[in-house]
Specification:
The chain has a ten-stranded antiparallel sheet with strand order 1-15-7-4-3-12-13-14-8-11, covered by helices on one side. Strand 3 and strand 4 form a beta hairpin. By secondary structure, it is mainly beta. It is built from one helix and 16 strands. It has a domain of 112 residues.
Length: 167
């Protein structure tokens, strides 16, 4: 790979990132992503502007999924009266495995660092948000959050695509 960023997760944007592959192994986690934004302040960005990377491989060395949840929601009517509330639902290990197995073409919409005061692991700790189409309704999107601990992040890609057009 031509470009390689080590431990620079905060210098990437994932709002448009599409998951091509998501693998777990004894060495850690590997994601192959499309449409990741390399921010202007990334050490590997010679464009000096936010730009999309071509296909990007993210390796999380020693990566372990600590926990996962299916995001709940609150539904309000037009008068701002709560109609329905569904709480976050913790995922079992089997549900996490199924989520990863079916993640191809889903979206990794956010990667957020867990507050240092809450991180007692001695490693990096991040939340990964994944949007999955609902089973019953084509328009329904189900969001999941995975809390992932890892010793090192390595993001590699071969080329840059277009500059990001913010609207």
């Amino acid at each position: 790979m031509k470009y390689k960023a080590i431990d620079e997760m905060e210098h990437f944007g994932f709002r448009d990132a599409k998951i091509i592959e998501f693998e777990r192994s004894d060495a850690g986690l590997k994601l192959v992503l499309e449409a990741v934004i390399v921010k202007a302040n990334n050490s590997q960005n010679s464009n000096y502007t936010d730009s999309y990377a071509g296909e990007l491989t993210m390796r999380l060395v020693g990566g372990k999924i600590q926990k996962g949840v299916r995001e709940g929601y609150k539904y309000y009517d037009a008068n701002d009266v709560l109609v329905e509330e569904v709480p976050d639902t913790p995922l079992t290990e089997d549900e996490i495995t199924a989520l990863l197995a079916g993640a191809k073409d889903d979206y990794l919409f956010d990667v957020a660092k867990v507050n240092d005061a809450e991180n007692k692991t001695g490693h990096f700790l991040y939340l990964f948000g994944i949007d999955v189409p609902g089973e019953s309704d084509e328009d329904e999107i189900v969001s999941y959050w995975l809390q992932i601990e890892f010793a090192q992040s390595i993001l590699e890609w071969d080329r840059y695509m277009n500059r990001v057009q913010y609207t």
